[in-house]
Design a protein that fits this description.
This protein is of the alpha+beta class and 179 residues long. The chain has 2 domains: 59 residues; 112 residues, H-NOX domain (Alpha-Beta Complex). It has 8 helices and 4 strands. The chain has a 4-stranded antiparallel sheet, with helices on one face. A hairpin with a 6-residue loop joins strand 3 and strand 4. 27% of the residues are buried.
Length: 179
């Protein structure tokens, strides 16, 4: 997993819960990196899981809800760092449906060894989208949060439901209906 995911996560934890919480979750975890991350480094997903688990234990917030909040934060990083990428799109459904064929292509240019989830579009209309998320990492709520922020970015709203195809959350169907 790319380091930017870790550095931004720890920035969010510090902003929301304080530096002491950052120290607490790092200390409670068994991290090969010792909790030292660079944005361009690559680190084990197990480290992110440990950090999330310890943050959840310390805050009483579920991992899924932590991932939603983190996705909102991460979208703001994308807005600031890659405004040209977002400016390519005029519509949230168009943007979300192009994750696999455009956005992930651009991400791989910056981070060639990034392990990204896949998104398969099953059905698309002007106001709806059905897609399948597949990943070895069960971070579908991070994807859900990014989708929510995408609609917000375009001053639009949608009802987004998800259905776990695999119980562990590594394969999920998203149903998106613009309001």
């Amino acid at each position: 997993m790319k380091g930017i995911v870790f550095t931004e996560f720890l920035d969010l934890v510090e902003d929301k819960f304080g530096l002491e919480m950052v120290d607490r979750i790092i200390t409670a975890s068994t991290l090969k990196s010792d909790g030292v991350y660079t944005a361009v480094g690559t680190y084990s997903f197990s480290e992110m899981l440990q950090l999330l688990e310890h943050l959840s234990e310390n805050t009483g917030i579920s991992i899924d809800n932590l991932l939603l909040v983190y996705a909102e934060h991460f979208f703001s990083v994308i807005e600031k760092s890659y405004p040209g990428l977002l400016a390519t799109y005029k519509d949230p459904i168009e943007m979300i449906s192009s994750i696999e064929n455009h956005i992930h292509v651009e991400v791989r240019k910056i981070y060639p060894d990034a392990e990204l989830p896949t998104f398969e579009v099953l059905d698309k209309t002007e106001d709806s989208l059905v897609l399948i998320y597949k990943s070895s990492r069960a971070m579908h709520h991070f994807g859900l949060g990014l989708m929510n922020k995408t609609f917000e970015h375009f001053n639009s709203t949608a009802k987004i439901d998800l259905e776990k195809i695999k119980e562990d959350g590594t394969e999920v169907r998203f149903f998106i209906q613009r309001n």
